[in-house]
Amino acid sequence: MKAVKTLVLLANDEHARLVENLGIGRGLTIVKDIAASEFSDTDVEYADRRGRSQASVGMAAHAVEPTTSIERQERQAFARHVLAETEKTFALGYDRFALVAAPRMLGELREHLPASLKNALQFDLNKDLVKTPERELAAALSDHAAF
């Protein structure tokens, strides 16, 4: 019987890791490390002052707040890059997918998850395990899947 190959994405706002499992009892092995600093568009810059809006009548002008924070824009940009890399790696022949990320990053990743990964999703977990040593990952995820 063919072993089920699982790709696991571990992510937070600044780093991501792709790890794989090639069958029950074989543990997890790091496939790729991804850092937000690798991508130039993850650093969002604003002007030094807020924008201004002119009232429809009269002389009043009002400061305009940005619709999303700098941190959220950076997180969204990094999430897009991480998911693109994850989708490309998953297409190399994995059967299942698992998503483990810090709370805010998990929300961004869920929101932009492509259909190919969504259909293969075994579980998602609200936990930051990016810095967990490779030898401890299988134990940290043992409540959710057998690795």
Question: Can you walk me through this structure?
Answer:
The chain has helices at residues 70-90, 103-112, 115-120, 134-140, and strands spanning 6-11, 15-21, 29-35, 51-54, 61-64, 96-101, 121-126. The chain has 147 residues and is of the alpha/beta class. Strands 3-2-1-6-7 form a 5-stranded mixed β-sheet. The protein is elongated, with a radius of gyration of 19 Å.
Oligomeric state, counting identical vs distinct chains: single chain
Strand content: 25-35%
CATH class: Alpha Beta
- Helix count, per DSSP? 4
- Structural class of the secondary structure composition? alpha/beta
Name the CATH superfamily assignment.
eRF1 domain 2
The Rg value, from CA coordinates, equals 19 Å
Using DSSP, what is the number of strands?
Answer: 7
CATH architecture: 2-Layer Sandwich
* Low-pLDDT residue intervals, each spanning 5 or more residues: none
Q: What level of helicity do the residues show? A: 25-40%
Strand order in space, largest sheet: 3-2-1-6-7
Element string (H = helix, E = strand): EEEEEHEHHEH
Query: Which shape, going by the Cα principal axes?
Result: elongated
**Per CATH, what is the topology?**
Nucleotidyltransferase, domain 5
Domain tally: 1
Major sheet attributes: 5 strands, mixed
